[in-house]
């Protein structure tokens, strides 16, 4: 495996860019290939079987770009597909669930943790499973928030409607006296201030994107795959691919990432 | 073509069931095959090219069920794909746009019509185009309402949040003094009371699902394809197919249709 090869990152759409952003921040020398499945977004309301099939196609595509490691930057795909695909492919693959779960278990003082995410992620029970493996006494409460993604994609990050919807979704979690809350969908860090205000200052918010970038860094170091290419920055250091509507993606990507995204290429992902 | 063959109806998901419901109401003798593309829903935010590719696959699938006519019960797919696919396939195909546009032009007294729909439908400008062909003096104002579908799918049909979002989306249309409003997405008839209250009693709401069923009835009569099978009702009179999550679909379908939907079959639509 070539240590100067890029890292592959994929998501159902734009949300995974919050993970790409953390990787770029923490590992500025690394090259990155991002794929957003904008023709089939969202994954959160789809079945395990379908999400696994889509993930396989995307991994096959990323392998054509000679990636040295793959990050599934989508909570739903991590929940449904990671266990299956990590056995099927030779490249190291990590998801966003484990790092977030570990950070939450470390952060909690009263043993009561909340997780918010899509219907798929919450319904899978995966966060609870991983946390209970670490500590069976942990009490985990999951809550699906299906309107959060559409609200973020409409740009209503600071809005009375988002406040109202968030208050409803989060009231159950407040009633459980959790002291730690996992933002278990890649769109949710963009609602961090709203969620933080409603939950109150005593609740620690865990962002799996940040934790996953840390995990990736450790993994690359361990496998001696960390990039040594700082002195020769490639022109195509960050490359973006989608399955639909490249222009719309480019605009959103530019608003999230620290540098302008110049070009996004559209790929017929069903053929992989 | 067999006049006792079923009518094929398709949509990106559950929304087209409002069209199926109208067909069942107006043509109780007809058999019906419904396909909901739940693995790739929604279409409203996707590109023309992608929506055409998806529509072709679904039409090929419906033809394996020997349908005698096809209704594209999705405004976005009607806007993007109808013109292309009606040339490519031998079976009569109708969409939901034309019937709705015709009804609106007939209904308006002051010549000012509003249209609400997905980003795809509104961005295509198709309602405006069809209405202007009928009467170039008609003034059409389109407004995309991307949060309406997620709100309906969350069941918030009568809710203060939906009221607030609807008030924002509709304020521009109110300012244009329209007297007729097309509910240009199959989910929107389920928000009829909210939209009607905000627009006021003087604004006529046009439901393309109803108008499309009328158009279909006329088409079948004209082509001598109306069903003659009333005396021998088939056990599988209404058949439902989806690309993902059959159970969730079955529950929603039962809540919308006049009779219980017993079974929904999952189809690998990418293979068609």
Features:
alpha/beta, Rossmann fold, 4-stranded parallel sheet, about 270 residues, globular, homodimer
Q: Find the count of extended strands of chain A (DSSP E, 2+ residues).
A: 10
| CATH A-level architecture of the largest domain in chain A | 3-Layer(aba) Sandwich
Largest interface: A-B, 22 and 23 residues
- The order of strands across the largest sheet of chain A is 4-3-1-2-9-10
CATH C-level category of the largest domain in chain A: Alpha Beta
Overview of this protein structure:
The structure is a homodimer of 272-residue chains. Chain A is α/β, with parallel strands linked by helices. The first copy, chain A, has two domains: 7-95 and 210-271, Rossmann fold (3-Layer(aba) Sandwich); 97-208, Rossmann fold (3-Layer(aba) Sandwich), CATH 3.40.50.1860. Chain A is built from eleven helices and ten strands. Chain A has helices spanning 17-26, 48-63, 75-88, 97-107, 119-124, 126-134, 148-153, 160-175, 192-199, 208-222, 246-256; strands spanning 7-11, 32-36, 69-72, 93-94, 112-117, 139-144, 180-183, 204-206, 238-242, 264-266. The first copy, chain A, has a six-stranded parallel β-sheet with strand order 4-3-1-2-9-10, sandwiched between helices. In chain A, strands 6-5-7-8 form a four-stranded parallel β-sheet, with helices on both faces.
